[in-house]
């Protein structure tokens, strides 16, 4: 039985509509690269604070529990998942990386960097003391900045958490970003000089992104600025400042730059290794005080010696309500290293971190 012209036209229209639908569906799916919570839902940003493994056997601390805060809640929550599971916020977020790798898509790019490469024994001092993950397409992506050595695994191996990351506290922030923010990140990474151990940046991104493809190829002809401060906006409009210093900036990033730039005294929490820490600094107009102990609850706290996290906040009573999260310690050795901090004035973030401060040291 022959089809009439009307029947053929109707069938072509349905086929065209189907193609358009699946094409749009594919675009929408590609657009969903984002930071994700433990339910797998997209969030504008999240912050995690992995708690240290306690030496007291009665506490039953595994070194895998973490505090969690995101753009949809007002204060810290205890994680329902352990950080080494694929159902953790990190696991859910990085699953998008492993799916992108498996798809071999030319529409998605990624970049993993860490001065302590997964499965390595030592650390590379030829690069910045900086750690993170970027995953993006031409619509949006995320930037995960963290303090965990040897994390995450390369995409071929899937998600895991290093056993070496259990003992001490760790911190990090994930921000969902529109593609137009990646040119700014491109310049910031040049200053930070990251040790990139896995990357894929298809040619479709090379027009806008100049430095990341070169860093990915272990070649960079660009002159590196001593330091650079820029503004970023999350996908939902949250404003962040990113401080990036090169190894030519031979000073403590907290005292010499961040505090003076933000015009506020800072309480700084970084890994306080004995005889390798900088003392609190009151020599400049805006001071930096070392946090010495972190309070989780009325009965639970831990020392900065057990904390590999890196963050700072405005001192109580000073303007701004700033919170900064990054990857450098207050250490004489790290005044010679490149790295950075990302800061904002979200009051919920500030109050969450302020409640963690048990006590800090004054200047001598």
UniProtKB/TrEMBL annotation:
Its EC number is 3.1.22.1. It is found in: Lysosome. InterPro entries: DNase_II. It is an enzyme of class 3 (hydrolase). Its main location: other. The keyword Signal applies. GO terms for molecular function: deoxyribonuclease II activity. It catalyses: Endonucleolytic cleavage to nucleoside 3'-phosphates and 3'-phosphooligonucleotide end-products. GO terms for biological process: apoptotic DNA fragmentation. Residues 1-30 form the signal peptide. It holds the Pfam family DNase_II. Hydrolyzes DNA under acidic conditions. Does not require divalent cations for activity. Participates in the degradation of nuclear DNA during lens cell differentiation. PANTHER family: DEOXYRIBONUCLEASE II, DEOXYRIBONUCLEASE-2-BETA. Belongs to the DNase II family. This is Deoxyribonuclease-2-beta. The gene is DNASE2B.
């Amino acid at each position: 039985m022959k089809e009439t012209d009307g029947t053929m036209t109707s069938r072509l229209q349905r086929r065209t509509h189907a193609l358009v639908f699946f094409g749009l569906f594919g675009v929408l799916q590609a657009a969903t690269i984002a930071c994700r919570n433990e339910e797998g839902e997209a969030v504008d940003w999240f912050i995690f604070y992995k708690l240290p493994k306690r030496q007291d056997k009665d506490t039953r601390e595994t070194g895998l529990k973490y505090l969690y805060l995101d753009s949809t809640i007002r204060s810290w929550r205890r994680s329902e998942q352990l950080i080494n599971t694929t159902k953790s916020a990190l696991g859910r977020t990085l699953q998008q990386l492993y799916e992108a790798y498996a798809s071999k898509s030319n529409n998605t790019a990624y970049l993993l960097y860490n001065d302590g490469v997964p499965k390595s024994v030592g650390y590379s001092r030829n690069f910045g003391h900086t750690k993170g993950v970027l995953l993006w397409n031409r619509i949006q992506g995320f930037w995960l900045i963290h303090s965990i050595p040897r994390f995450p695994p390369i995409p071929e191996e899937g998600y895991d958490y290093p056993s070496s990351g259990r003992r001490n506290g760790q911190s990090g922030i994930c921000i969902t970003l529109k593609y137009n923010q990646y040119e700014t990140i491109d310049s910031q990474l040049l200053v930070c000089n990251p040790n990139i151990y896995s990357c894929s940046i298809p040619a479709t991104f090379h027009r806008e992104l100049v430095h990341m493809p070169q860093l990915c190829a272990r070649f960079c002809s660009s002159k590196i600025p001593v330091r650079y401060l820029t503004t970023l906006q999350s996908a939902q409009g949250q404003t962040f400042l990113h401080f990036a210093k090169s190894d030519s900036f031979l000073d403590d990033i907290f005292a010499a730059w961040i505090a003076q730039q933000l015009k506020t005294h800072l309480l700084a929490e970084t890994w306080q290794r004995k005889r390798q820490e900088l003392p609190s600094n009151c020599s400049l107009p805006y001071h930096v005080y070392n946090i010495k102990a972190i309070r989780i609850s009325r009965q639970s706290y831990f020392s900065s010696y057990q904390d590999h996290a890196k963050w700072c906040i405005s001192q109580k009573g000073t303007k701004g309500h700033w919170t900064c999260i990054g990857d450098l310690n207050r250490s004489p050795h790290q005044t010679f290293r490149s790295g950075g901090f990302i800061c904002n004035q979200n009051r919920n973030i500030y109050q969450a971190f302020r409640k963690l401060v048990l006590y800090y040291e004054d200047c001598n």
